[in-house]
Write a structure and sequence with these properties.
By secondary structure, this protein is α/β, with parallel strands linked by helices. It has a domain of 90 residues: GMP Synthetase, Chain A, domain 3, CATH 3.30.300.30. The protein is built from 12 helices and 19 strands. The strands form 5 sheets. It has an 8-stranded mixed beta sheet with strand order 4-3-5-6-7-8-9-13, sandwiched between helices. The protein has a 4-stranded mixed beta sheet with strand order 18-17-16-19. Strands 10-11-12 form a 3-stranded antiparallel beta sheet, covered by helices on one side. Helix 2 crosses helix 7, helix 3 packs across helix 4 and helix 10 packs across helix 11. The longest helix is centred in the first third of the chain and has 22 residues. The chain is globular, with a radius of gyration of 22 Å. The relative contact order is 0.12. Its EC number is 6.2.1.30. It comes from Brachybacterium fresconis. It is an enzyme of class 6 (ligase). InterPro entries: ANL_N_sf (IPR042099), CapK_Type1_Caps_Biosynth (IPR053158). This is Phenylacetate-CoA ligase.
Length: 443
């Protein structure tokens, strides 16, 4: 064992014992049989509902009026009768959600980035060592908990918080690039830091990762090849995956998390679907009326945080769209699989006939991913579509792009004009990429 691994292991057994213990627990859970994992999830779900009904004003009133019995929730039909939360409900009753367990020590404020609307403020349970979830996932890619990391995302915790984090996990070293402040100067500094610590993992918002890749190409720079790249904050299209792998020389892994909930799912080394963290989250897919969708059917993602006892998030509609899989992964992990999130529920284009386009838009260049670096579909108020494309380097790229857009025209039967606009870059919101934009008023 290396000196770094020895020091890390010692700290994970002493001053960071909670994180080390939780990590070991998670590693055991991923080897449970599907039946045992289902039993564990059901027990945790009943516990979180029981806690919410006892200690949260909102749930005590709402669930009490409905006569919900936590004991009966072992039945999936009874669970599906629990009302689904939306962002507006949480915003309107946010002061009623915290439980009696929420204190300055146990609760940590969480605020969404607001790239899809007004930010939402919730709380995380600070007693849950969330980083252990990442360690488990990193291990699937060959990255160890004590390895150096480089991250690009929303990093606004201040100098003292950053210093505390660095000291806490020394001898591991972490470097950060604020996705909300991507300039030549900040990216130059980040490149130097990566070159110095040679991190096995680069993790970040996909839009910011692509921006950093473009910066390196403009400057003729390279970074030490990591073992893995991890992307989040937007759907990982095949073109974006290919672009990042060519730029950094490492496989790109998709992960699913949110500011409200935290880590929820991630790809294993096979990169064929995301493993749901079923021992800490309950992920459901429902139709527009809230009815459970069958495995393989696209619907709205509804998440329950099974470990947050300070601000319970039970059956929360995230605004994302997804598909659950039925079969196991050949990798041997018992954690169930889901398809990569298919975009947000408001990533929908409406045609004058009433037809709605959502699924498959982000995959429209999937057959020739290297033909585009990045793209965006923008629907104007008159229903016309503009496909903005940052062209890739594949020979015949424009021909492939024209073909893909022609297929889109055929799909909508030329109901509205569709034009292509070749651009040098696309805007990012805090490092996040908005693939679908619609200016059509919706009811």
């Amino acid at each position: 064992m290396s000196l770094k691994a020895t020091i890390f292991t010692a700290k994970a057994s002493t001053i960071n014992a909670d994180a080390g213990r939780f990590h070991r627990h998670l590693l055991e859970n991923q080897q449970l049989t599907p039946e045992a994992l289902g039993t564990l999830q059901s027990r945790l779900a009943q516990d979180i509902v029981r806690t919410a009904m006892r200690d949260s004003t909102f749930y005590r009133r709402t669930y009490g009026e409905l006569g919900i019995d936590p004991v009966a929730l072992a039945d999936s039909g009874a669970w599906a009768e629990i009302p689904i939360l939306d962002r507006m409900t949480i915003k309107e009753h946010s002061d009623e959600f915290p439980t009696a367990e929420a204190t300055e020590r146990t609760a940590r404020t969480a605020v969404t980035g607001g790239s899809t609307g007004e930010p939402l403020r919730t709380m995380h349970d600070a007693r849950v060592p969330a980083l252990a979830l990442a360690w488990r996932m990193y291990g699937w890619w060959g990255v160890q908990p004590y390895d150096n990391l480089a991250r690009i995302g929303r990093w606004n915790f201040g100098r003292m918080a950053t210093l505390k984090n660095d000291v806490s996990w020394w001898p591991s070293r972490q470097v950060y690039l604020d996705a909300g402040l991507l300039t030549d100067d900040t990216m130059t500094t980040f490149h130097r830091s990566m070159t110095r610590i040679r991190p096995p993992l680069l993790e970040g918002y996909i839009g910011a990762l692509l921006e950093f890749a473009d910066f390196l190409e403009r400057r003729g720079l390279r970074v030490p090849e990591p073992l893995a790249i991890a992307s989040t904050a937007a759907p990982l299209t095949e073109s974006a995956r290919t672009r990042l792998e060519n730029a950094f020389g490492a496989p790109v892994h998709d992960e699913y998390r949110s500011s409200e909930i935290g880590w929820m799912a991630g790809e294993c080394a096979r990169r064929d679907g995301l493993h749901v963290f079923a021992d800490v989250r309950r992920i459901e897919v429902v139709d527009a009326d809230g009815r459970p969708a069958a495995p393989g059917e696209l619907g709205d993602l509804v998440i329950t945080d099974l470990r947050n006892r300070v601000f319970p998030m039970i059956r929360y509609r995230t605004g994302d769209r997804g598909i659950l899989r039925a079969g196991p992964c050949p990798c041997g992990l018992s954690l169930p699989l889901m398809e990569p999130p298919q975009g947000r529920t408001n990533d929908i284009l409406h045609l004058p006939s009433g037809t709605a386009l959502a699924h498959r838009l982000t995959a429209m260049f999937g057959t020739h991913p290297e033909a585009v670096r990045l793209f965006q579909v923008h629907q104007q108020a008159d229903y016309s579509l503009t496909v903005r494309v940052v062209e890739g380097e594949e020979p015949g790229a424009r021909r492939h792009i024209e073909t893909a857009v022609s297929e889109l025209r055929e799909r909508i039967r030329d109901e509205v004009p569709v034009r292509i606009e070749y651009v040098e870059s696309l805007p990012y919101t805090g490092g996040k990429t908005k693939y679908i934009i619609s200016d059509v008023p919706t009811s």
